[in-house]
Write a structure and sequence with these properties.
CATH topology of the largest domain: UDP N-Acetylglucosamine Acyltransferase, domain 1
Helix content: 10-25%
Number of strands: 39
Number of helices: 8
Number of domains: 2
CATH class of the largest domain: Mainly Beta
Strand content: 25-35%
Radius of gyration: 31 Å
């Protein structure tokens, strides 16, 4: 892979290769899941697979046989069968794993392997399955030791096995070291046959499913195949993808029925999209929840929540921690960060809202900026229900604008604005008192005569 990152942490459809393998293995409903790792990569892989997967170290890179032996030492004596998978096969389906196990148990085999028939040119570095009497598998020959063949296609070992634990414990101890200095799991096939044990093979109908990712080129092929699979699943579930080829999905995305995805739209991470929502064209949505009937045009949405019927217009950016309540409207060229926007609040265009709590039914005029950063810390701006923020208002946090208050165009608000008040100017001063405060103008005028009356 020519990478500083362990191969199995490279991603297909947003999910590390090793997590795809773990998810496939879990279709067997195992009592225990283990990942065999090198000491250097243990911490990173453990973080990727999360709780419920035990990481077992392989101290020295002495091949797949030695990796299996490292894990086998941790397997409880009560375990009757083991499922072994390579960690670089993101396209392997859980249904295929279930079929392999069913065959293994039905035939009472000590070892059942998964194979695929591929064009000869794709089998260059893959182990070859050798068959004998009654077309039963008798051995797997590693690519470096296989003889040249003129056959157009070759049956290859996929690297997935179901094995009887009691037999396996003794068989692993008998593995011999190859000239490469490694011990091979594949030698177990010939060992079982030599011992008169039953070996079975399940040949996959779709060879692509067994693809191992060993290069960046194969990583790209696996991504393309997974995207096709995810798009088809989304459409089968009732979503409309207007141009499937330019819709990009992660395996962790959930699309409800009647969602419409317009061209060139990327939906990534743990994103859920509610029924009837419309996304794109040219939208990027990551780790977010989009509610029913919501609209996201050519915008970037990250780690945010968009409730039912809310709207995000083109060239806007919802940064982490943004929450749009039901019916909220965000127009064009608006950036919002770590803020809650109330129901039916309107932020039309060209504004920055950061670290703010905005109530219901608020109008935010064009060019409004919440000045949330003083060079040392971030501060909160609060705007009450029904307030009207005039165009080009600067709200210098920490500051509160009360319910129903109004700021004039170009106001620089440096102090709290009481409910119902109207302020304007630089710095903003009270033009009209709020309801219930008839003396507010006079009071502020008195303050102003002392040099301190720049209420905002």
């Amino acid at each position: 892979m020519r990478s500083s990152m362990p191969k199995v942490l490279h991603r297909v459809a947003g999910v590390p290769l090793v997590v795809h393998a773990v998810n496939a293995a879990r279709h067997a409903h195992p009592d225990l899941v283990m990942a065999v790792v090198s000491p250097a990569s243990r911490a990173d892989i453990a973080a990727a697979v999360g709780d419920g997967v035990e990481c077992v170290e392989q101290p020295d890179p002495l091949g797949t046989g030695q990796a299996l032996a490292s894990a086998l030492a941790r397997v409880p004596a009560s375990c009757g069968h083991i499922l072994l998978l390579n960690g670089d096969k993101p396209l392997l389906r859980g249904e295929t794993i279930a079929e392999l196990i069913e065959l293994h148990l039905k035939r009472s085999a000590v070892l059942t392997l998964l194979s695929a028939v591929v064009p000869a040119e794709e089998a260059v570095d893959l182990g070859r399955v050798q068959r004998g009497a009654r077309n039963k598998p008798v051995a797997v020959t590693e690519a470096v030791e296989a003889r040249a063949t003129r056959a157009a296609s070759t049956e290859v070992n996929v690297g997935v096995y179901a094995m009887e634990t009691a037999w396996l414990r003794g068989a692993v101890e008998s593995l011999v070291c190859h000239p490469s200095g490694e011990y091979y799991v594949t030698d177990l096939v010939a060992a079982a046959v030599a011992g008169g044990k039953r070996v079975e093979a399940l040949t996959m109908a779709d060879a692509e499913e067994g693809m191992g990712v060993k290069t960046r080129s194969l990583l790209a092929r696996a991504e393309a195949a997974m995207q096709t699979r995810l798009r088809e699943a989304a459409m089968d579930g009732g979503a409309t993808l207007l141009d499937p080829a330019t819709t990009y999905l992660d395996a962790t995305v959930e699309l409800a029925r009647d969602v419409t995805v317009h061209p060139n739209t990327s939906i990534r991470g743990t994103t859920s999209v509610g029924e009837g929502a419309s996304l794109g064209p040219n939208a990027q949505i990551v780790d977010s929840a989009v509610g029913p009937g919501a609209v996201v045009r050519a915008a970037v949405v990250e780690s945010s929540t968009i409730e039912a019927g809310a709207h995000v217009g083109p060239f806007s950016h919802l940064r982490a921690g943004t929450h749009l309540a039901e019916g909220a409207f965000v127009g064009t060229h608006v950036e919002i960060k770590a803020s809650r926007i109330g129901r039916n609040t309107h932020i039309g265009h060209f504004s920055y809202i950061g670290d703010a709590i905005i109530g219901d039914g608020v109008n935010i005029g064009a060019g409004t900026v919440t000045c949330n950063y003083d060079g040392v810390a971030k501060h909160v701006t609060e705007i009450g229900d029904g307030a009207f923020i005039g165009s080009d208002s600067m709200l210098v946090a920490p500051v509160r604008v009360g319910a129903g208050a109004v700021t004039g165009a170009g106001a620089v608000v440096t102090r709290d604005v009481a409910p119902g008040e109207t302020v304007a100017g630089v710095p903003a001063r009270v033009l009209h008192a709020g309801a219930g405060r008839p003396d507010a103008v006079g009071a502020r005028s008195s303050e102003s005569s002392e040099g301190g009356g720049s209420l905002g």
